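Section 3.1: Structural characterization of target chains.
Under the original work plan, the team committed to producing a structural model for every single-chain target entering the pipeline before any wet-lab resources were allocated. The record below documents one such target. The sequence was received from the expression subgroup and is listed exactly as submitted; it comprises 381 residues.
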Amino acid sequence: MSELYELPDGWEWIEFSKVFNTPTSKPYQIQKTEYLENGLLPIIDQGKEFIIGYTNSIEKKYSNESNCIIFGDHTRQIKYVDFDFVIGADGTKILKEKDKNKYDLKFLYFQFLSKKIESLGYSRHFKLVKQMFFAIPPLQEQQRIVSKLDLLFEKIDRSIALHQKNMDEANAFMGSVLNDVFRELEEKYSTKSFDDVSLNIRYGYTDSAKDKGNAVFIRITDINENGKFKDNFVYVNIEDKELNRFKLSKGDILVARSGATAGKVALFDLDFVSVFASYLIRIQPSDDMNSTFLFYFCHSPKYWTQLNTIKVGGAQPNVNATNLKEIKIATPPLQIQQKVVAYLDDISQKIEKIKQLQKEKMASLKALKASILDSAFRGEL
């Protein structure tokens, strides 16, 4: 695993199997049919939203009497948990220390955070975790380090939360601007459906991603929250006939179909020969619809209000192409659309500068946490 370095006197390297009980989650898992919006017990998962629902099925409760560490086998997410719960996804492991008289669990949690587990390979990462060694001082020293880390991290986390709040407020301001703009346009001009302002609305291409191919394969995971594209593309080999059907052109709008990302929108602006995956819907704007104008509309509260009324499905509603065609948008003349885009571009660029500054400050604070953790487990804190 990671390189073992020289430890201070009184510290020792101890392997994972001697520190932790054999992890499991099976007895505490719950079926999706048992999910509730409110209930006696929270359901935890490995994703971005750690608490994903509630249940009244107390027979599957994990009684977390003295806290535990949650390890996401698929996401490599680490959480220190101090409440009772049930588990909502396979591969969510519960870690407990073997000997409370020798190990402080939160000390072990902080050391987990220092090991950069998210960088491990997807298919073998828990096998690699089980090969880890932990730097262990006497229990009293562990507790001293935990107290210091708690104090330092509380201050850093407050600063990170403040920068996140600034970003959230910037996003809210942009949403308010978009709402005002498109509300005013609706008062002045007629509205049309997406079907009326599009040449084509269709689902994407079904295939498996490859390392090489004749076309870039655009997937939901390639789209950032701001509707821009990441740069770690995969490929497909696609015949010319299919390429003509699914090839993207600059100005095409892509809409995510399913799950937590349903409705997320991107404006295609890449120079690569590209096709889009089946979990995306492509909108090709007509000649009298400015694609960036449509893109901005798809980030406005007016779009999301309509979208939420047309989603179909259960716990995670989906968007389908037929219903997407029904969404209404104000349709001023093309010249007015272009003026609106210029105005929104100016505001958007200023907001992005603010957000970028906040991101940089947050990144510096997270790097500081990593540096503190590194020092802590070398006996330098």
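The first strand starts at residue 12 and ends at 15.
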